[in-house]
Amino acid sequence: MRKKKVYFSAVAIAAAIASCTTGQGDKIIIEGELANVPDSLVMELIEWEGASGEKVATDTLIDGKFRFEIESASDGLSRGMICSDGGLRTPEFLWIEPGAKVEIAGDGLDYSGWEIRSNVDAQENENLFREAAKSEHSQMFQCVAEYLTMLEAFNNKNVRTDEESKLMITRLRELSERQENIYKEISHKERTLLADMNPDEAWAYRLSTLCTLFEHYDDSIAGIVAKEQFGRMDEQLEASFYGQKIKSALFPPAVLQIGDMVPDIELKDTLGNVHSLQELRGKYVLLDFWSRGCGPCIMSFPELRELSEKMKDRLEVVSISQDAESAWRKASAKHGITWNNWNDLQFDSGIFARFGVQGIPRYFIISPEGKLVDTKEGYSEGFLKYNWLPKYMDLYGRTPSYRNEGDVRIIDYPEVDEDHLSCMNICRVELSEKGTDVIFKVLFRPGWWIKVADTSYIVADCGEKLPIRKATGITLNAETYVPESGVMEFTLHFPALPVGCTSFSYYETEEADAWRAIGVKVKE
């Protein structure tokens, strides 16, 4: 079959761009024509603003042509990538803004050879970067296409032997590593253009990729080049998403750790009012780091709304977006966020960097006194209200109390230096000459089970190790199901603490991820 080639007409491009600027208003129009590509492929446009992307348009390829016409979620510059069910995943190689007119022409789905014309200034530098690493982009296209095809086949769970599955997994890992290496090769080619190019958004985007190599792959040369070029940005570019990302990578802020007091950080709501985390002192605070393009983030909203309403006397929910202002406002309205919804407008720098957020959704619990007490990443239905928050709501307003009942010294809700008990609290400790009884209160999803190992032990502050004797209310090494109330208690019995002991630590096993409570205070 004779192949058809598609070329741009300079006159046609000039006329198309002129028509956009004079009659299309703020709409973004992207038109493409690809030769030697089968019809009926569904083409998707993903718009990226900052670190979040969202599918904003689809079109079916007919006679090699496709067209996207959208109103951008952003008031400024954003990036676009094109995907299809034919194994196409382009990089974010389109620069778009309200009023943008983009024309694409190419032969096949290999985007490395596509010609892109646009009335957006940043596209000029983008095209220079693409040309500098054209062969590497072609390799990336082929690698990604094979990876996606194999991944789809693997997920289809067709009948195959274990050996065939192992071979597929091995090949997927090889392809993943190959993509990583090609990414590095592309960045190495692109960095050669930085010094002679006028800084703009496309330039800053490439500089930020050097920072990624510097941060995550220990590429010292990338770090040196990035630091050399950083000073060339003007104030506007430095304040952009990429400018802040570069600055945060090269000059990272100190990341808050569990147990740290949370500093006074100012953020704005969608009306422009300024808020501070310190204004919420006196209640627990649930911080939710999210973005409009994060599916699990959006899935959590009904649960966050429920928590903000049902626990408002003990808990403040604060969702913090990494999106640009316009996209954040639109997403907030779309999803009906009624609880605290704030943004420092520093994308994934600023408060995201201070809390060390790398993936979203990410949740943090701040105590009523302002101390960072726990963090979790990821979301599944019921996770917040059943699996994580109840233990902190149980602690709200409680302080350790000490009393005697006969020869038994009782400490209710003792102070604990480090709590790694997941869905449990130590609600009581009973001390006597006969032994040490530790009562645990479980607050967990009804119908789910917990298991406690018979290797549990406590260590007195003098260093003496005391192994478990028995348990009541639970069978060691067995699955114990949580009742419908979501609350249950059990007791672990240990030998008596040495005379003069002021604290002990509990360990379920020697494993680092096992349940443990460090520094349980037994003296006032």
Give a concise summary:
With 524 residues, this protein is α+β, with helices and mostly antiparallel strands.
Helix content estimate: 25-40%
**Spatial gap, N to C terminus:** 88 Å
Structural class of the secondary structure composition?
alpha+beta
Name the beta content range.
25-35%
Mean pLDDT: 90
- Gyration radius, in Å: 29 Å
Strand ordering within the main sheet: 16-17-19-20-26-24
- Count of helical segments? 14
Low-confidence stretches: 1-24
Largest sheet: 6 strands, antiparallel
**What is the total tally of β strands?**
28
- Shape assignment: elongated
Q: What features would you describe in this structure?
A:
Helix content is 31%, strand content 29%. With 524 residues, it is of the alpha+beta class. The chain is built from 14 helices and 28 strands. The chain has a six-stranded antiparallel beta sheet with strand order 16-17-19-20-26-24. A five-stranded mixed beta sheet has the order 13-12-11-14-15, with helices on one face. The radius of gyration is 29 Å and the shape is elongated.
Topology of this protein?
Blueprint: H1 10-23, E1 28-35, E2 42-49, E3 52-60, E4 65-70, E5 78-84, E6 94-96, E7 101-107, E8 115-118, H2 122-132, H3 134-155, H4 162-191, H5 201-216, H6 220-230, H7 235-238, H8 241-250, E9 266-268, E10 274-276, E11 284-290, H9 295-299, H10 301-310, E12 315-321, H11 325-335, E13 340-342, H12 351-354, E14 362-366, E15 372-377, H13 383-388, H14 390-395, E16 401-405, E17 408-412, E18 416-420, E19 424-431, E20 436-443, E21 449-450, E22 457-460, E23 465-467, E24 470-472, E25 480-481, E26 487-494, E27 503-507, E28 516-521
Parallel strand pairs: 1-7, 11-12, 12-13
Antiparallel strand pairs: 1-4, 2-3, 2-5, 5-6, 7-8, 9-10, 11-14, 14-15, 16-17, 17-19, 18-28, 19-20, 20-26, 21-25, 22-23, 22-27, 24-26, 27-28
Helix pairs in contact: 2-5, 3-4, 4-5, 5-6, 5-8, 6-8
